[in-house]
Design goal:
six-stranded mixed β-sheet; elongated; 436 residues
């Protein structure tokens, strides 16, 4: 049995920048040789690329961690380290990428070949050639590479289809798809025969074409997780027109009009905006006994519950088995698609703002807390970036880091919080004594 995976949670880690180098010129006949250590190379980005050949997120079931290469270290003679190549991760069309921590949508990947950087590589650390000044012409200072961005992502696959077939199980959605397209969905006389979405292309007699998705049968309570509905309702979001398939023969003892109301209720409960999509009602199985009488009764109830100012969705009687009435249905669907715009899947509140990789002036540079052992703990994105890029093997680099902390106001803030001479201060796993 084929498996379908339409959500996945993965971790991505961009490459770290290469470390800068401390080196000096030592050539013969060159007195007082100066610094000659080069910069490190840039770390590789993690890039998602849309591949139209992929149909599922199954690959992410077995590989959940993606890590790009780090940049090369700087070299002597002022040579830069080589930047790392980006890590390319291929995803199917219709993949929505969210930040797992915030729930914000990072991007919606729908065009073949579309690219998006989901994790940015760190810049290379500067070599000591960058720190030479008239006052200090031979600095023993270099930077470590900037850490690459690391994040957890939630992937959702929403099938790219112009038209979605919805309805209760066994109303004939798969049969209809099989006769109007070249798709070969599984067809059986039992519920939930379709357990994965099926996609097919339709070409009408007038030459129009569009993509149709046969979605697994919905039942009452689908939006709350009953049946398969909650798993596949998301695929309806990308469609522009909904074909609402109804078993007009009432072969399972249900009232066709109640079926219509129940499915619409599930669509509305899952996402109110799904009701913005125009619907065409497809009265299927018209070759069966009692279907004509049931259709007349359906139309009466249907008209009675719509007010005169509303446009009633059109009703097309068909038989998927005998192929009766298909041409008018497909022509009407193509005509409706022509005048139906794309629907925005996400509003601005759901989208992550453009990522800024510098530090905002208003952003708090550091935070101070107190550990159980009375150690002062310093944290914060800006402070940790400086810490990670400091080469603690070089005394001059350590002194530079101390000056940076003082310039950020760390000393004064610790003093205000009550830190005394000799108190321990911790940044990550690094500890030092506070000197008042």
């Amino acid at each position: 049995m084929s498996m379908f995976l339409d959500t996945a949670k993965i971790k991505v880690k961009a490459g770290n920048g290469g470390d800068g180098m401390v080196a000096f010129r030592r050539e013969k006949y060159v007195p007082n040789g100066g610094p000659w250590g080069g910069d490190g190379g840039r770390g590789g980005n993690v890039v998602f690329v849309v591949d139209e050949g992929l149909r599922t997120l199954m690959d992410f079931r077995y590989n959940r961690h993606f890590k790009a290469q780090s940049g090369e270290k700087g070299m002597t003679k002022g040579m830069h380290g080589r930047g790392a190549e980006d890590l390319i991760v291929r995803v199917p069309q219709g993949t929505t990428v969210r930040d797992a921590e915030t729930g914000k949508v990072l991007t919606d990947l729908i065009e073949n070949g579309q690219e998006f950087i989901v994790a940015h590589g760190g810049r290379g650390g500067r070599g000591n050639i960058r720190f030479a000044t008239p006052k200090n012409p031979a600095p023993e200072i270099s930077e470590n590479g900037e850490p690459g961005q690391e994040r957890e992502l939630q992937l959702e696959l929403k099938i790219l289809a112009d038209v979605g077939l919805v309805g209760f199980p066994s109303v004939g959605k798969s049969t209809l798809l099989s006769v109007i397209t070249s798709a070969k969905p599984k067809i059986g006389a039992y519920h939930f025969t379709t357990i994965v979405p099926n996609l097919g292309m339709v070409r009408t007699q007038s030459g129009d074409s569009f993509a149709v998705a046969d979605l697994p049968g919905l039942i009452e309570g689908a939006s709350q997780g009953v049946g398969l509905g909650t798993q596949f309702l998301r695929h309806i979001e990308r469609t522009r027109v909904i074909l609402h398939i109804i078993d007009m023969s009432a072969s399972e003892g249900r009232d066709p009009y109640e079926d219509y109301l129940a499915i619409n209720k599930e669509l509305e409960s899952y996402n109110l905006r799904l009701m913005e999509r125009p619907q065409i009602i497809v009265a299927n199985k018209m070759d069966m006994p009692d279907s004509k009488e049931n259709l007349e009764e359906f139309k009466k109830k249907f008209a009675a519950n719509y007010n005169e100012f509303e446009d009633l969705p059109p009703i097309f009687p068909i038989s998927g088995l005998t192929k009766q009435g298909l041409a008018p249905l497909l022509d009407a669907t193509a005509e409706l698609l022509d005048k139906t715009p794309e629907f925005l899947l996400y509003d601005e509140s759901e989208m992550e703002e453009e990522v800024y990789y510098g530090f905002d002036e208003e952003e708090k540079a550091f935070e101070i807390s107190r550990d159980d052992d009375a150690t002062w703990v310093l944290s914060g994105d800006k402070l940790m970036k400086l810490f990670n890029m400091t080469n603690f093997d070089r005394d001059e680099s350590v002194m530079k880091f101390a000056r940076q902390l003082r310039g950020m106001g760390v000393d004064e803030a610790l003093r205000t919080r009550g830190a005394k001479d000799g108190d321990l201060v911790r940044i990550g796993k690094f500890e030092f004594e506070f000197v008042d």
